[in-house]
Structures are given as structure tokens and as C-alpha cells.
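Here is this case:
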Amino acid sequence: MSNITKNNKLKKVSKMIKKGSKVKVHYTGKLTNGKVFDTSVEKEPLEVVVGQSGLIKGFEDGLMGMKEGEKKTIEITPEDAYGQLIEGRTQEVEKSMLPEEIQVGMALQANGEVGTMVVTVKEIKEETVVLDANHPLAGKDLIFELEVLEVTNTKKTNAKKKKKK
């Protein structure tokens, strides 16, 4: 998007992210200890429509108001990410019910009362295994480094409504 200045020279106008914007963004997600848990760098950027994307609240909130080419680091609390750990979401099962090569931290699919879910192996005991149905990032503060590559504002905010006669 460009505007013409008084000297008839084109001047680039940065597009700002708002609800409904289609956005291409590179991100790196880290824990507070610096460990990277996900990144789009050296891969395809994340493409989303803000407000319709299913992103965690803190990530979307962090994008709001950013402009093309802008970089920023945001910190997200568990409440605006994957929630707090819920103690009742662990279950101890017989080791014989699981694959032989399980390891602590491994993700497994399990059939539960609400359908198929992903569980994480938390502890391996002699005869049983403790599984956790919390999201692996639940209860954690997250840090995201964001770089906005492109913004397309799909909603027309200046469109005038036609009056009915």
C-alpha cells in the first residue's frame, strides 16, 4: 500500500495487524530457561487470519498492532497459553497396556471418555506408567520472538453502508 506525498514520491505505508488481518509471521517459541520448543524459522512462515486461527490468546494478542517488517519478543503466562496444570489429568496404567519402547516425555495417543487424546509419559515404574493428559506446555510461561513478514487487511473498515429507502 502506498501514498503519494506532496513531492509526488511514493511512500510505503505499513499495514498494522488487526482482527481479520491475514498475517505471515516467523516465530520462535521458548521456555523461560531458553529451550526452544517450536519455530518456523528456516521453514514456511505461519499464515493465519487473526481472530479465526485457533492460536493461543497471548500469541494473537502479541500480534495485534504489529506492522509488516516489525520484530518483537512477547511473554505469555499460562492463562493466555495452554492453561495451568490440572492435577486430575494424570492416570497410572499397567505397563503391559503400552508399547515396549516407551520413555519419559514420549507422547502417546490414548482413547478416553471424550475420544482420542494425546498423553505424555511422566513416570515409568516397575509395573505401571504414569500418563499425563495436560498439554505439554500447560503451566509454563512462554516467550515468543515474532517477525511479521506480511499483513493483508481483509476487512474494509472505511466502507460506507448503503442506506435503505
Observations:
- The mean pLDDT is 87.
- The chain has two domains: 13-83+138-153, 87-132.
- The first strand starts at residue 2 and ends at 4.
